[in-house]
Structures are given as structure tokens and as C-alpha cells.
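DUF1244 domain-containing protein
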Amino acid sequence: MDDKTRTELEAAAFRRLLEHLRTRTDVQNIDLMNLAGFCRNCLSNWMKDAADAQGVPMSKDESRQFVYGMPYDEWRAKYQKEASADQKVAFEKAKPHH
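Structure:
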């Protein structure tokens, strides 16, 4: 597979992941962190890191809106729930360091 095709396939898979996460608003970021070691915020941070590495101007707010499909504060107001005590304990045990 050539590099252009690989990049196109990776981009398509990433877009599909974002769309999936945008439709699964019932899945909280803390659940993603506890199970997979990353969440929507991690994806937005990685997007910003990639933009920075390429010299593309992108703010943290812009990268979050890209991932969430809406302003982050709007997503939080609509969908984010308070983490339970069990979720917080699990997060502290499995907290990634990336």
C-alpha cells in the first residue's frame, strides 16, 4: 500500500471514530479513560499536537470543537454527568500518563 492510500484510509477511520464518539454521548470520557486509557480530550490534544508539529495554527478550543463536533462547554452542559465515586477510584488506578 502506498503512503497516500494509507493516509487516506487512516483519515477515514479517524473520521468514523469521531462520528461514532459524537453519537455515543452516553459514554462519558471517564469511562473511556478507565477502559481504554484515552478519551475525547486526549484525541483533541493529539490533534492539536499534530497541528503544532505541522505549523498549523489551532487553539485548544478549536481542537476540542473538531473532536466533539460542537464547542466543548456546550457538549459538557448537554452530556457530561458527574463521575461516580467508583469511576473516580478506577480513574486514579488506571490514570494514563500521556
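The chain has a mean pLDDT of 94.
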